[in-house]
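Weekly sync, protein design subgroup
Attendees: M.S., D.O., the rotation student, P.L. (late)

Item 1: inverse folding check
M.S. brought a backbone from last month's batch and wanted to see whether the design step gives back something sensible before we order anything. D.O. pointed out we never logged the input encoding, so this time it goes straight into the notes. Structure tokens as presented (279 positions):
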């Protein structure tokens, strides 16, 4: 039994060791990723449910590692957050997304807002509003064409600090949206005095709307409450026609999901805009 215990122990430490090494390797490589141009943005359309037309896009980062392949953000954004690399990476994302939105417009497409995810660490940095303002000026994007997506966890800090930072950002003229709504602990009433324009209903709710009465009623009440607080609603992770008709019935404003389009490259978005692709 003793023998076996020792084996188990060494098995687990070896496993753990591998994971720690993997993390360290990933972290090292991530340091070089920006300089080596390995990061790129994909864009996923948001569709207005009244008009059926693309009403905006969300920028989503991808890391293309030579000889390895594409690493999804869920695998490296947490590391970037821990190490602080999210600050330079986040600035790069913001600049690239704003520049792309300006480029689409210059190519003759109607101006559509671009949404960028802002992580907790970025939001907490001293001069986040200055950084955003400088990027808007540098790229020439109209502030109203930029949307910043924040998760509830970002907003679970000292309320006065949060309110102050949100007001500074809002004063620039950008739109603010609450990402993954419903997965955290905040209620919409906690948010009612904050300058939030859009609530993005998390995809876990959408997967439930056609399969459970509770899922459907929760989603309905999020839409209704957002409405009463004058916030627009976007449903994330829409994959089926059934989910779409639910959203239409309950007057959700916009949808985003594989049912319409996966995240695609900048040129592919331009093609969709040219073709007038509709829901
Ligand atoms: P998120 O902000 O909630 O982004 C939505 C995620 O859902 C994206 O995953 C998108 O590809 C995926 N998705 C879209 N439609 C569907 C659908 O119909 N079904 C399903 N199952 N999934 C769908 P992705 O691109 O892998 O990004 C994952 C997360 O990584 C994002 O979640 C966001 O939290 C983070 N992230 C991505 N890009 C950035 C970035 O530039 N900065 C920061 N700070 N975080 C980012
Ligand atoms: Ca998002
Ligand atoms: Ca989300
Ligand atoms: Ca998410």
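Designed sequence read out in the meeting:
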């Amino acid at each position: 039994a003793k023998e076996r215990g020792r084996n188990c122990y060494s098995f687990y430490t070896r496993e753990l060791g591998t994971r720690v090494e993997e993390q360290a390797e990933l972290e090292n490589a991530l340091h070089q990723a920006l300089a080596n141009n390995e990061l790129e943005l994909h864009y996923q359309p948001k569709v207005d449910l009244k008009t059926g037309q693309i009403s905006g896009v969300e920028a989503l980062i991808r890391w293309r590692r030579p000889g390895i392949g594409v690493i999804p953000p869920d695998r490296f954004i947490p590391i970037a957050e821990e190490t602080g690399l999210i600050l330079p990476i986040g600035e790069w994302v913001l600049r690239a997304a704003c520049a792309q939105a300006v480029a689409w417009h210059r190519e003759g497409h109607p101006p559509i807002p671009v949404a960028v995810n802002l992580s907790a660490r970025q939001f907490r940095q001293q001069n986040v509003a200055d950084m955003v303002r400088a990027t808007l000026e540098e790229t020439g994007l109209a502030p109203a064409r930029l949307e910043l997506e924040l998760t509830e966890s970002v907003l679970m800090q000292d309320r006065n600090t949060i309110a102050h930072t949100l007001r500074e950002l809002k004063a620039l003229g950008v739109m603010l949206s609450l990402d993954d709504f419903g997965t955290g602990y905040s209620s919409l009433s906690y948010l009612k005095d904050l300058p939030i324009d859009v609530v993005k209903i998390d995809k876990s709710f959408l997967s439930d709307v056609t399969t459970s009465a509770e899922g459907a009623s929760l989603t309905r009440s999020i839409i209704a409450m957002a409405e009463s607080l004058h916030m627009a609603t976007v449903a994330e992770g829409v994959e089926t026609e059934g989910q779409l008709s639910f959203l239409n019935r309950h007057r959700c404003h916009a949808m985003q999901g594989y049912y319409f389009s996966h995240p695609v490259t900048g040129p592919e978005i331009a093609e969709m805009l040219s073709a007038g692709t509709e829901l």
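Discussion: The two ends are 63 Å apart (CA to CA). The pocket of calcium ion (ligand 2) is lined by residues 58, 117, 149, 179 (CB under 6 Å).
Action: P.L. to compare against the previous round before Friday.
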